[in-house]
Design a protein that fits this description.
26 helices; 8% strand; 3 domains; alpha/beta; Rossmann fold; Fumarate Reductase Iron-sulfur Protein, Chain B, domain 2; globular; single chain
Amino acid sequence: MGASETTALHVLPNRHADAPQQRDLDKCVHCGLCLNACPTYRELGVEMDSPRGRIYQMVQVATGKALMDEGYLEHMALCLGCRACETACPSGVEYGKLIEATRTEIQAKVRRPFPWGMVEDFAYGTLLQSPLLLRLLATGLWVYQKSGLEALVRASGLLKLMGPLGKIEHLTPEAQLPTFFTQYGKVFFAEGERKYRVALLGGCIANVFFARLHEATVRVLQKNGCEVVVPAAQGCCGALHAHAGRREQARALARNNIDALLQTKFDAIISNTGGCGATLKEYHELLEHDAAYHDRAKEFVSKLKDVNEFLDSIELNSKMGPVKRRVTYQDSCHLCHGQKVKVAPRKLLKAIPGLEFVEMPASDVCCGSAGVYNVVENEMAEEILVSKMRNVNSVAPEQIASSNPGCMIQLAAGSRKHGSGKLRENPEPVKHIVELLDEAYRNAR
């Protein structure tokens, strides 16, 4: 279908309010420059699993020429939502907005089979929004992992009998106690002169699986003259909900965070999670038609900074000790393609004394994590991961640096399974850039 046909779209009047909008569909001229940027197209070579092909299908559904059949649902589900196509697109197609809108319409109109619908409703509607349940989950998982029961189950062969659950068990991250929820409501004073007052967002799952990363983030910010506040009333950012098409839940979570973080004046609101940050920076779009919150959402977004972005914007404290290690960097898709932050992480890595930074090929191609994609679309995620690890191994690093916890889980699993040389031998094959900075500051003592 050509560009002239797209502009003549007649969208059906009974569509969901959050379905893809005609003005957004019209932007695609079907040139195909997005194809090679798309991880699923690179793996499968199937037009319908490319951004251009998926937009064509969205148009067909919008005009009533096609139904939301199994094929349509499968092609939309197989999209990682990595947004690499946005970087490649010369026409400014906001593909991330389109795929989220499509999934919102699917979520509203297509009933999930039992029991998966109930499982998803509990996960998105209850678990991710409950600090108490997340802490209980962390405690139970910590006991399972530290008691030796996890190792016993893995050695017993029971995982082979668990079907799909057994295949994704290796992705289970280490539960960390105490969780970062214990730091909510606290203020951490700057080391030396206070130059900035910032708020740190903890999120949801990261508080129990990446508590030590959050603590490292606080220390690095303190080293750079920041008074760090961890607001008690903050909650899940809503990124996973938005990606899954649960837009109203995402909006409710956005309102809560806006209320929690605009009560006090901050120089910046800091996120250390590339995926969360992209959604946080789009709160004004999420609440576009909310008269009570749209302007406040714009104010919130104006202060939101990824931690790499923030540290690169200030005079970085250079009093670091050496970290003698060969390190490569994997771009977080939503940091690179969503937030357009690509240079800052590399500048920070190069600022660490003794660290040898090596660029891997195709560092901005998705690793297959993509929120919960590696869980729900594990087979495709594994294929993408194999390609990613091939590029990682080609530069023979000792460690991979990342800017997103989801990527860290996926890359750690990939390093254990497909890594080579010193990377495979490293007990910590993946670290967040902030953790490397924290190590450097500690080595200066």
